[in-house]
Amino acid sequence: MKFYLIDDDRNILNILKLIITTRNLGTVCGTSLSGCDALEDVRLLAPDIIIVDLLMADMDGITFVRKADEFLSETAFIMLSQVSSKDMIGSAYEAGVEYFIQKPVNSVEVENVIAKVSRQLSMQRTIQKMQNIFMDEMSSNSPEPERTTSSAAASRTVLTNILQRLGISGDIGSRDIVMAVEYLLEHDGQINDMTLGELCGRFSDSPKSMEQRIRRAANTGMVNLAHLGIEDYGNDIFTEYSNTLYNFEQVRREMDYIRGKSDRHGNVKIKNFLNALVVYSQNQ
Protein backbone atom coordinates (compact mmCIF):
# COMPACT_ATOMS: atom_id res chain seq x y z
CA MET A 1 0.00 0.00 0.00
CA LYS A 2 1.17 3.55 -0.82
CA PHE A 3 0.57 6.18 1.84
CA TYR A 4 0.44 9.97 1.66
CA LEU A 5 0.61 11.89 4.95
CA ILE A 6 -0.74 15.40 5.65
CA ASP A 7 -0.34 17.31 8.90
CA ASP A 8 0.86 20.83 9.70
CA ASP A 9 3.01 19.38 12.48
CA ARG A 10 6.25 17.95 11.03
CA ASN A 11 6.80 15.80 14.12
CA ILE A 12 3.51 13.98 13.50
CA LEU A 13 4.52 13.30 9.90
CA ASN A 14 7.84 11.87 11.04
CA ILE A 15 6.19 9.65 13.65
CA LEU A 16 3.63 8.28 11.18
CA LYS A 17 6.28 7.65 8.55
CA LEU A 18 8.43 5.80 11.09
CA ILE A 19 5.53 3.59 12.19
CA ILE A 20 4.54 2.73 8.62
CA THR A 21 8.04 1.88 7.45
CA THR A 22 9.38 0.07 10.53
CA ARG A 23 6.25 -2.10 10.85
CA ASN A 24 6.17 -2.93 7.14
CA LEU A 25 2.69 -1.50 6.66
CA GLY A 26 3.54 -0.06 3.25
CA THR A 27 5.54 2.75 1.66
CA VAL A 28 5.17 6.50 2.16
CA CYS A 29 5.07 8.08 -1.29
CA GLY A 30 4.79 11.65 -0.04
CA THR A 31 4.09 14.04 2.84
CA SER A 32 2.84 17.60 3.12
CA LEU A 33 2.38 20.29 5.77
CA SER A 34 -0.46 21.85 3.74
CA GLY A 35 -3.78 20.49 2.50
CA CYS A 36 -3.70 22.84 -0.50
CA ASP A 37 -0.24 21.68 -1.57
CA ALA A 38 -1.17 18.05 -0.98
CA LEU A 39 -4.07 18.21 -3.48
CA GLU A 40 -1.61 18.66 -6.33
CA ASP A 41 0.67 15.87 -5.08
CA VAL A 42 -1.99 13.22 -4.56
CA ARG A 43 -3.49 13.86 -8.00
CA LEU A 44 -0.18 12.70 -9.50
CA LEU A 45 0.82 10.07 -6.94
CA ALA A 46 -2.61 8.39 -6.53
CA PRO A 47 -1.84 6.88 -3.11
CA ASP A 48 -3.83 3.93 -1.79
CA ILE A 49 -4.34 5.51 1.64
CA ILE A 50 -4.17 9.15 2.72
CA ILE A 51 -3.80 10.05 6.40
CA VAL A 52 -4.86 13.66 6.92
CA ASP A 53 -5.17 15.91 9.97
CA LEU A 54 -8.64 17.28 10.71
CA LEU A 55 -7.62 20.75 11.88
CA MET A 56 -5.14 22.58 9.64
CA ALA A 57 -4.69 26.29 9.02
CA ASP A 58 -5.00 26.54 5.24
CA MET A 59 -7.54 23.77 4.61
CA ASP A 60 -9.26 21.53 7.15
CA GLY A 61 -9.16 17.77 6.67
CA ILE A 62 -12.85 17.38 5.78
CA THR A 63 -12.57 19.94 2.97
CA PHE A 64 -9.42 18.23 1.72
CA VAL A 65 -11.12 14.81 1.65
CA ARG A 66 -14.13 16.18 -0.26
CA LYS A 67 -11.89 17.77 -2.88
CA ALA A 68 -9.52 14.80 -3.19
CA ASP A 69 -12.37 12.28 -3.37
CA GLU A 70 -13.53 13.92 -6.61
CA PHE A 71 -10.53 12.48 -8.48
CA LEU A 72 -9.30 9.70 -6.16
CA SER A 73 -12.21 7.27 -6.24
CA GLU A 74 -10.09 4.29 -5.17
CA THR A 75 -8.19 5.97 -2.34
CA ALA A 76 -9.08 5.39 1.33
CA PHE A 77 -8.89 8.23 3.86
CA ILE A 78 -7.89 8.08 7.53
CA MET A 79 -8.28 11.21 9.63
CA LEU A 80 -6.12 12.37 12.55
CA SER A 81 -8.10 14.21 15.20
CA GLN A 82 -8.34 15.31 18.81
CA VAL A 83 -12.00 16.19 18.25
CA SER A 84 -14.73 13.91 19.65
CA SER A 85 -17.78 15.84 18.33
CA LYS A 86 -20.27 13.39 16.79
CA ASP A 87 -21.43 16.01 14.28
CA MET A 88 -17.89 16.63 13.04
CA ILE A 89 -17.11 12.91 12.95
CA GLY A 90 -20.34 12.36 11.00
CA SER A 91 -19.33 15.05 8.49
CA ALA A 92 -15.96 13.37 8.07
CA TYR A 93 -17.51 9.98 7.33
CA GLU A 94 -19.92 11.54 4.87
CA ALA A 95 -16.98 13.18 3.12
CA GLY A 96 -15.34 9.78 2.62
CA VAL A 97 -13.18 9.16 5.70
CA GLU A 98 -12.78 5.47 6.54
CA TYR A 99 -11.38 5.62 10.09
CA PHE A 100 -10.10 8.02 12.74
CA ILE A 101 -6.80 7.97 14.61
CA GLN A 102 -6.91 9.95 17.83
CA LYS A 103 -4.14 12.33 18.81
CA PRO A 104 -1.72 12.04 20.50
CA VAL A 105 -0.65 9.34 18.05
CA ASN A 106 -0.27 5.85 19.48
CA SER A 107 1.73 3.34 17.43
CA VAL A 108 -0.52 0.39 18.33
CA GLU A 109 -3.67 2.27 17.28
CA VAL A 110 -2.03 3.47 14.07
CA GLU A 111 -1.02 -0.06 13.12
CA ASN A 112 -4.46 -1.51 13.95
CA VAL A 113 -6.36 1.15 12.02
CA ILE A 114 -4.08 0.92 8.98
CA ALA A 115 -4.40 -2.89 8.98
CA LYS A 116 -8.21 -2.63 9.00
CA VAL A 117 -8.32 -0.05 6.21
CA SER A 118 -5.78 -1.97 4.10
CA ARG A 119 -7.79 -5.17 4.48
CA GLN A 120 -11.02 -3.39 3.60
CA LEU A 121 -9.45 -1.68 0.58
CA SER A 122 -8.04 -4.98 -0.70
CA MET A 123 -11.44 -6.62 -0.30
CA GLN A 124 -13.19 -3.82 -2.18
CA ARG A 125 -10.73 -4.05 -5.05
CA THR A 126 -11.04 -7.83 -5.23
CA ILE A 127 -14.83 -7.59 -5.32
CA GLN A 128 -14.74 -4.89 -7.99
CA LYS A 129 -12.32 -6.92 -10.10
CA MET A 130 -14.45 -10.02 -9.89
CA GLN A 131 -17.60 -8.08 -10.69
CA ASN A 132 -16.01 -6.63 -13.83
CA ILE A 133 -14.72 -9.94 -15.18
CA PHE A 134 -17.03 -12.61 -16.56
CA MET A 135 -15.89 -16.02 -15.50
CA ASP A 136 -14.75 -17.94 -18.61
CA GLU A 137 -15.03 -21.15 -16.65
CA MET A 138 -18.81 -20.70 -16.47
CA SER A 139 -19.12 -21.22 -20.21
CA SER A 140 -16.19 -23.59 -20.59
CA ASN A 141 -16.71 -27.23 -21.45
CA SER A 142 -13.85 -28.28 -19.20
CA PRO A 143 -14.75 -30.11 -15.99
CA GLU A 144 -15.33 -27.84 -13.01
CA PRO A 145 -13.01 -28.40 -10.04
CA GLU A 146 -14.73 -29.91 -7.04
CA ARG A 147 -14.51 -28.14 -3.74
CA THR A 148 -13.22 -30.26 -0.90
CA THR A 149 -15.42 -30.98 2.09
CA SER A 150 -13.10 -29.00 4.37
CA SER A 151 -13.09 -26.02 2.00
CA ALA A 152 -16.88 -26.04 1.74
CA ALA A 153 -17.20 -26.26 5.53
CA ALA A 154 -14.80 -23.35 6.03
CA SER A 155 -16.71 -21.24 3.51
CA ARG A 156 -19.99 -22.06 5.23
CA THR A 157 -18.52 -20.98 8.58
CA VAL A 158 -17.32 -17.65 7.16
CA LEU A 159 -20.67 -17.05 5.48
CA THR A 160 -22.66 -17.91 8.60
CA ASN A 161 -20.50 -15.60 10.74
CA ILE A 162 -21.07 -12.69 8.35
CA LEU A 163 -24.84 -13.19 8.36
CA GLN A 164 -24.76 -13.35 12.16
CA ARG A 165 -22.83 -10.08 12.32
CA LEU A 166 -25.45 -8.51 10.06
CA GLY A 167 -28.15 -9.77 12.41
CA ILE A 168 -29.95 -11.83 9.77
CA SER A 169 -28.78 -15.39 10.48
CA GLY A 170 -32.23 -16.23 11.88
CA ASP A 171 -34.04 -14.78 8.88
CA ILE A 172 -35.58 -17.37 6.56
CA GLY A 173 -33.91 -15.62 3.65
CA SER A 174 -30.48 -16.30 5.15
CA ARG A 175 -30.80 -19.97 4.21
CA ASP A 176 -31.52 -18.94 0.64
CA ILE A 177 -28.49 -16.64 0.67
CA VAL A 178 -26.25 -19.47 1.87
CA MET A 179 -27.66 -21.76 -0.82
CA ALA A 180 -27.11 -19.18 -3.55
CA VAL A 181 -23.55 -18.31 -2.46
CA GLU A 182 -22.55 -21.98 -2.14
CA TYR A 183 -23.91 -22.64 -5.64
CA LEU A 184 -21.74 -19.81 -7.00
CA LEU A 185 -18.72 -21.10 -5.09
CA GLU A 186 -19.19 -24.63 -6.43
CA HIS A 187 -19.45 -23.30 -9.97
CA ASP A 188 -16.42 -21.03 -9.57
CA GLY A 189 -18.25 -17.91 -10.61
CA GLN A 190 -20.16 -14.78 -9.78
CA ILE A 191 -23.67 -13.75 -10.62
CA ASN A 192 -22.65 -11.25 -13.32
CA ASP A 193 -23.95 -13.24 -16.27
CA MET A 194 -27.35 -14.24 -14.90
CA THR A 195 -30.28 -12.61 -13.16
CA LEU A 196 -31.07 -13.32 -9.53
CA GLY A 197 -34.26 -15.02 -10.71
CA GLU A 198 -32.27 -17.31 -12.99
CA LEU A 199 -29.91 -18.16 -10.15
CA CYS A 200 -32.80 -18.99 -7.82
CA GLY A 201 -34.37 -21.09 -10.57
CA ARG A 202 -31.32 -23.40 -10.53
CA PHE A 203 -32.46 -25.00 -7.29
CA SER A 204 -35.94 -23.76 -6.39
CA ASP A 205 -39.40 -24.57 -7.72
CA SER A 206 -40.49 -21.08 -6.69
CA PRO A 207 -37.63 -18.78 -7.76
CA LYS A 208 -39.69 -15.60 -7.34
CA SER A 209 -40.41 -16.36 -3.69
CA MET A 210 -36.78 -17.24 -3.05
CA GLU A 211 -35.63 -14.04 -4.73
CA GLN A 212 -37.97 -11.98 -2.55
CA ARG A 213 -36.71 -13.68 0.61
CA ILE A 214 -33.09 -12.95 -0.36
CA ARG A 215 -33.90 -9.31 -1.07
CA ARG A 216 -35.73 -8.89 2.23
CA ALA A 217 -32.90 -10.48 4.23
CA ALA A 218 -30.21 -8.39 2.51
CA ASN A 219 -32.26 -5.25 3.07
CA THR A 220 -32.71 -6.11 6.75
CA GLY A 221 -28.93 -6.46 7.02
CA MET A 222 -28.49 -2.95 5.62
CA VAL A 223 -31.06 -1.53 8.05
CA ASN A 224 -29.22 -3.19 10.93
CA LEU A 225 -25.93 -1.72 9.69
CA ALA A 226 -27.52 1.72 9.47
CA HIS A 227 -28.62 1.49 13.10
CA LEU A 228 -25.07 0.46 14.10
CA GLY A 229 -23.69 3.47 12.23
CA ILE A 230 -26.07 5.84 13.97
CA GLU A 231 -24.98 4.50 17.35
CA ASP A 232 -21.25 4.37 16.54
CA TYR A 233 -19.58 5.43 13.29
CA GLY A 234 -16.46 3.56 14.39
CA ASN A 235 -18.19 0.19 14.83
CA ASP A 236 -16.07 -2.45 13.05
CA ILE A 237 -19.08 -4.24 11.54
CA PHE A 238 -20.48 -0.97 10.20
CA THR A 239 -17.23 0.29 8.69
CA GLU A 240 -16.36 -2.98 6.98
CA TYR A 241 -19.65 -4.20 5.55
CA SER A 242 -21.13 -0.81 4.63
CA ASN A 243 -18.25 -0.50 2.16
CA THR A 244 -18.12 -4.06 0.82
CA LEU A 245 -21.42 -5.91 1.05
CA TYR A 246 -23.29 -2.65 0.58
CA ASN A 247 -22.74 0.75 -0.97
CA PHE A 248 -21.86 3.30 1.72
CA GLU A 249 -23.94 6.03 0.08
CA GLN A 250 -27.00 3.80 0.25
CA VAL A 251 -26.33 2.86 3.89
CA ARG A 252 -26.00 6.55 4.70
CA ARG A 253 -29.31 7.21 2.94
CA GLU A 254 -30.93 4.55 5.14
CA MET A 255 -29.40 6.24 8.18
CA ASP A 256 -30.96 9.54 7.12
CA TYR A 257 -34.31 7.80 6.69
CA ILE A 258 -34.10 6.32 10.19
CA ARG A 259 -33.23 9.76 11.60
CA GLY A 260 -36.20 11.29 9.80
CA LYS A 261 -33.98 13.44 7.57
CA SER A 262 -35.12 11.76 4.34
CA ASP A 263 -38.20 10.00 3.01
CA ARG A 264 -36.12 7.61 0.88
CA HIS A 265 -34.76 4.25 1.99
CA GLY A 266 -31.32 3.03 0.98
CA ASN A 267 -31.12 0.65 -1.95
CA VAL A 268 -29.42 -2.76 -1.92
CA LYS A 269 -27.71 -4.07 -5.05
CA ILE A 270 -28.32 -7.77 -4.59
CA LYS A 271 -25.79 -8.93 -7.19
CA ASN A 272 -23.03 -6.93 -5.52
CA PHE A 273 -24.14 -8.26 -2.13
CA LEU A 274 -23.93 -11.91 -3.23
CA ASN A 275 -20.70 -11.39 -5.16
CA ALA A 276 -19.09 -9.84 -2.08
CA LEU A 277 -20.17 -12.81 0.03
CA VAL A 278 -18.56 -15.12 -2.54
CA VAL A 279 -15.28 -13.22 -2.23
CA TYR A 280 -15.38 -13.32 1.57
CA SER A 281 -16.05 -17.07 1.45
CA GLN A 282 -13.21 -17.70 -1.00
CA ASN A 283 -10.74 -15.78 1.17
CA GLN A 284 -11.47 -17.61 4.43
TrEMBL record:
Keyword check for Phosphoprotein: yes
- Recorded superkingdom: Bacteria
- Give the SMART domains listed for this entry: REC
Q: Which biological process terms from the Gene Ontology are attached to this UniProt entry?
A: phosphorelay signal transduction system
InterPro entries, sorted? CheY-like_superfamily, Sig_transdc_resp-reg_receiver, ST_Response_Regulator, YcbB
Keywords (alphabetical) are: Phosphoprotein
Which residues are annotated with the PTM 4-aspartylphosphate? Answer: 53
Q: Where is the Response regulatory domain?
A: 2-118
**Is Phosphoprotein one of the keywords UniProt gives this record?**
yes
Please name the Gene3D superfamilies in this protein's record. Answer: 3.40.50.2300
* Function, as annotated: May play the central regulatory role in sporulation. It may be an element of the effector pathway responsible for the activation of sporulation genes in response to nutritional stress. Spo0A may act in concert with spo0H (a sigma factor) to control the expression of some genes that are critical to the sporulation process.
Task: Output this protein's name.
Answer: Stage 0 sporulation protein A homolog
Species of origin reads: Extibacter muris
